[in-house]
Amino acid sequence: MSGEFDLIRQYFTHRTRHTLLGVGDDAALIRVRRGHVLAISADMLVEGTHFFAGADPEALGHKTLAVNLSDLAAMGATPRWATLALALPKADARWLAAFSRGFMRLARAHGVDLIGGDTTRGPLNLCVQIMGEVPAHKALQRDGARAGDEVWVSGTLGDAALAVAARRKKIRLTPLQLAAASRRLDLPTPRVMLGLALRGIAHSAIDISDGLLSDLGHICERSHVAAAIELDALPRSRLMRAVAAHIMMPGVAQDALLSGGDDYELCFTASPRQHTAVMRVAARARVPVTRIGRIVKAPAGAVGVAVMDRDGLPLRVTQRGFDHFG
Ligand code: ADP
Ligand code: MG
After folding, report:
1. pLDDT tens digits, residue range 131-150?
2. Could you tell me the distance, in angstroms and rounded to a whole number, from the CA of residue 73 to the centre of ligand 2?
């Protein structure tokens, strides 16, 4: 790409805080603190699949990093370094300036160094690899849930899915409602502080990127357990309650709550003995958390998530989260 090096210098070379060698050489050099291990994750955002064509570049910069930070939050890791691989249809300086503003603002807020990447011409594609540190044996894994654990989620569920439904004209929202839902979809808040605070308290954790049923299902699979959650207990925003109250839309609201992706809240499990500890550290991290159900023994191989109505009867739920190849 012509002018590639100028662009990199201009938009992707920033001062680093905990990096031995950053952008500009053939590889970056980092040192992990003694007693810690590296937590590494990558997430790619593709135009048309993860965001609409013409999406605001500053918001995209934010989201590209936010979804990666969310993965480290779910591991209880401190985010430190990121690489950024970009395919761009053209070298548009205004687009790059806005994208880099959104990306770097969030990076600085979390103390993340941008230490390298790749820039190439092609259909718009944004790929981040994020690296963080976590004390050895302290990571929050998906495979640690135990029968008897309480199941928790942070924040509220389903608002991002409401924004998608509105943009696809499946539901109608007022301009104010659409703005609120769009903020959740376009500018997600990764729950990094909460993830760190849950180390040593939670048995397992995952971030909700594909929908509660699907992602809690992953915890169940990896932990060889089942989960029973209460529909009424799921945390709903004001927007969600308004949509659910609308006579034409309760089904949409329920689908969004249970299977909506893109919320980037944390779902985690912890012993009931840790109930007050969970409440305490969540308050300190300034993130609301809600107990939504229990982990139970898997009945003969049937790992999975059951959703209970207010009478304690299991609901038939068809939509099971978003699967790119489903
Ligand atoms: P190479 O030919 O070795 O792949 P590049 O010309 O692709 O080197 O990149 C030069 C330097 O700029 C490298 O340090 C690389 O990590 C960094 N870099 C390239 N693109 C990006 C980007 N989008 N964001 C951050 N750093 C980048
Ligand atoms: Mg390269």
Report:
1. 999 999 999 999 999 999 99
2. 28
Query: For residue 132, what is the enclosing H or E element?
Result: strand 125-135
Work out how many domains the chain is built from and give that number.
Answer: 2
> Measured between alpha carbons, how far is 80 from 249 in angstroms, rounded to an integer?
42
Predicted local distance difference test score (pLDDT) of residue 301: 59
Domain residue limits at 57:
4-135
Is 146 found in the same domain as 120? Answer: no
For the segment 302-322, the average pLDDT, to the nearest whole number, is: 76
The residues that bridge with 116 in the sheet, in sequence order, are 83
Distance (Å) of CA 8 to CA 32, 79, 192, 194, 322: 26, 22, 28, 33, 35
Query: In whole angstroms, what is the distance from residue 82 CA to residue 129 CA?
Result: 6
Residues whose CB is under 5 A from ligand 2 (ion)? Answer: 118
HSE at residue 214, side-chain half, CA atoms within 13 A, is 21
Ligand 1 shell residues, CB under 6 Å: 8, 12, 23-26, 84, 86, 114, 116-119
- Asked, for residue 293, whether it belongs to a domain, the answer is yes
